[in-house]
Amino acid sequence: MTKRELSSSLKGKIAATLIGMACAQGSKGEINFASPFVDDEGVDLIFFRKGGGGKAVLAQVKSRTMQSKLLSRGTFRVQVRRASFKPREGYYFIFVAFDESRKGLFDTLWFIPSVDFERKLAGQTNETVLVFQSRFNSRDMWEAYRTSLAELPQRITQIL
Fold first, then answer.
1. Does residue 58 sit within a domain?
2. What is the pLDDT of residues 46-74, one digit of tens each?
3. Domain that holds residue 16
4. pLDDT digits (tens, 9 = 90+) for 126-151
5. Among 2, 40, 51, 154, which is most buried by a count of CB atoms within 10 Å?
6. pTM: predicted TM-score of the whole model, two decimal places
7. CA distance 110 to 115
8. 129 belongs to a structural domain
């Protein structure tokens, strides 16, 4: 039987779903999540408190797999298209690595408010993309946003 490769779109959807499930489970069901039918607004997940309240956290999930050469050397790098990026309150990026062999997410990820992302990358001159790059254990401008998968539900709950 031929081994079939997952498309990048499917890998992204799997990573976003795993993030949502980890947050629902990690909050003991206090937060729930939904996925938009279409992600035209750059939103992959919508987190909300179970039972209402009206406030939501919108998140775009960007993932990479261990097959990435940079990631295999400990560097996470991803591009965000400027044309679809609209920073606003309540809108966050979640940058996470996906290990296909383990069929799961890395424990370390970045949870960054979109307004901070825009401010920190204001000096980038590429007209079509913004480039996020960090290492899993470095002291860089993204260190304050680095968190664990287990801590992410608490961070989202605090915002909600």
1. yes
2. 999 987 778 899 999 998 876 667 776 77
3. 8-159
4. 888 888 888 888 788 999 999 999 99
5. 154
6. 0.88
7. 14
8. yes
